[in-house]
Amino acid sequence: MSQEKKKLSATFKLLRVLGFNYSEEEYGQVSLWRVIKQFFGNIYRKRLEKMMDWPILQSFNPRKIRPVLLRKMGCHVGKGVFIGDYVRIDCGHADMITIEDSVSIASGSRLLCHQRDFSNFYVGDDYMKLGYVVKPIVLRKGCLIGMESFVMPGVTVGEGAIVGAGSLVTKDIPAWTIAAGRPAKVLKEIPNREK
């Protein structure tokens, strides 16, 4: 066994002793330093996330403070954005979330940039050894994410689109449509205003 493989193997053994169960196939370049850096970065981002729900600041939170805190976490956030109570983002991949101008995200919604990759999962496989799908999320100008909705990795919600409350968005939603359900499906196109 080469010296580099021995070093990687020892690192993974140490990480497992500490309670981290990384897949060697997925995280071949993991080092103890990278894990420590990610750990403290996540603590910082989680503290910012908790600040979004401070009751004393509720009247300022949705349009003023929450967008600023999301930017500090690493998200790309435009102007005039509304972020409801208890909205949660994928803190470890905050830099992969783009929220354009005038987007509204209602209370309790989740934006997730990673999930387990089940494309090669079979009977008898170890779930913990599966890799991850990691993809960005883009919320285009003026769209609305309804209360308690989940937006999954790789999704783009088009300009002016409305996602109904409680939806699970697994695929792109076209501009100027209304979508809802688990998984979310387009229910209606938003018409042009008659002159």
- For the record, what is the CATH homologous superfamily label? Hexapeptide repeat proteins
Look at the structure and give the mean pLDDT. Answer: 84
Using the 3D structure, state the CATH architecture: 3 Solenoid
C-alpha-based Rg, rounded: 20 Å
Q: Give the tally of β-strands.
A: 16
Q: How many structural domains does the protein architecture include?
A: 1
Give a concise summary.
Helices cover 25% and strands 22% of the residues. With 195 residues, the protein is of the alpha/beta class.
Topology, element by element:
Layout: H1 3-17, H2 32-51, H3 61-73, E1 76-77, E2 82-83, E3 88-89, E4 97-99, E5 104-105, E6 110-111, E7 114-116, E8 132-134, E9 137-139, E10 144-145, E11 150-151, E12 156-157, E13 162-163, E14 168-169, E15 177-181, E16 184-189
Parallel strand pairs: 1-4, 2-5, 3-6, 4-9, 5-10, 6-11, 9-12, 10-13, 11-14, 13-15
Antiparallel strand pairs: 7-8, 15-16
Describe the structure.
The protein is α/β, with parallel strands linked by helices and 195 residues long. It has one domain: Hexapeptide repeat proteins (UDP N-Acetylglucosamine Acyltransferase, domain 1, 3 Solenoid), CATH 2.160.10.10. The chain is 25% helix and 22% strand. It contains three helices and 16 strands. β15 and β16 form a beta hairpin.
